[in-house]
Amino acid sequence: MSVERNDRIFVGIVWGIVIIGLWEVIAFLLQNVFQDPMAATKLPYLHVIIATFIQNAGALLGAGLVTFSRAAAGFLVGGIIGIILAVIMSLSKTVERIGLPYLIISQMIPILALAPIIFNIVKDMDSARIIIAAYITFFPVAINMLSGLKAVERDQKDLLYSVAASQVEIYYKLMFPFSMPYLFTGLKIAAPLAITASILVDMLGSSSGIGVKILYALYSNSSNIFWAAVLTSALMGISGYYLVVLGEKVLLPWNKTSSKKGGDNV
Amino acid sequence: MKSVKKLVSIVLIIGLVTMLGAGCSSGTTKKESSSTGGLQKVTLQLKWLPQSQFMGYYVAKEKGYYEAEGIDLEILPGGSDIIPEQQVSNGVADIGVTWLSSLMKYQSQGWDLIDTAQIFQKSGMLLVSKASTGIVTPADLRGKKVSSWFGGNEYEIYALLEANGLNKDKDLTMVQQDYTMNQLINNDVDAASAMTYNEYGLLLESGLKESDLNKIDMNDAGVAMMEDCLFVSKDWIADNEDLYVRFLRASIKGWADACADPTAAGKTVYNVDQSVSLDHQIYMANEVKKLVEPAGFDAAKIGYIDMNAVQQTADLSLKYGLLTQKADLSTATVNPKYWEEATK
Amino acid sequence: MKEKMLNIIWPLGFGIAILLLWQVGFLHMIFGLKPYQLPVPTAIAITLSNNLGKALTDCVVTISGALIGMAFGSLIGFMIAAIATFFPKWGYGGMIVVSAFNAIPLVALSSIMNLWFSTGMSQKIGVVTVVCMAAMSMNAYKGLNSLKPFSVDLMHTVAASEWTIFTKLRLPNCLPNVFTALKINIATAIMAAMISEYFASSTSGLGFAIKDSLRKGEMAMGWSYIVVASLAGVILYGIIILVERNAIKWHASQK
Question: Is residue A115 one of the residues assigned to a domain?
Answer without folding.
Answer: yes
